[in-house]
Amino acid sequence: MSRWHPKQRADLDPDGQHAWDAIVGARGDAAVDRRGYLVGPFGPWMHNPRMAAALVDAGTSIRGSGLDVGLTELAIVVVAAHWRADFQWWFHSPLALQHGLSAEQLAAIRRRRVPAFARDDQATVHAVVAELLRSGQVADDVFACAVTAIGEPGIVALVALCGYYSTVSFTLNAFGVDVPPGHEIRWDE
Known about the structure:
There is one protein chain. Helices cover about 65% and strands about 0% of the residues. It is an all-alpha fold. The longest helix is centred in the last third of the chain and has 35 residues, at about 140-175. The protein is globular, with a radius of gyration of 17 Å. It starts with 13 loop residues before the first helix and ends in a 15-residue tail after the last helix.
């Protein structure tokens, strides 16, 4: 159940409209639902437009930091599953499938299990994200594998991605942002 009151662009002051435009500019028309409200974390964020604009800029920078899009989507769904962020899972799991994850891998991630990966970079990204979420640390051997698999710039991007999408998950969960009607996420099946 939603804990926030959605706003349309016309309801906002100039700072809010600027933040709205930045969100739609970064995420496209899919960021607005058919009723004229922002979807996902963006709706709650609009109650603090300066913060919303900063978070959208950060998200755009992090996603554009050079990490392969398939690895990015893998990391996002691992974060979504860890925090049980329904909307984030609903939105990003089809993208993860589109960019290289199998349905079996995605099902394992949804159950918080380690999937079988044929690619070393996927296994390493999963290991880094899982360790960060579990302990806030990355073991030396996993870090060394990550340097080989995605490079130091990739590790920086991956760590930032985990923090950003944890913030997104927290927003979705704290404000009760629902998936669209007719969709339900079942975490443990």
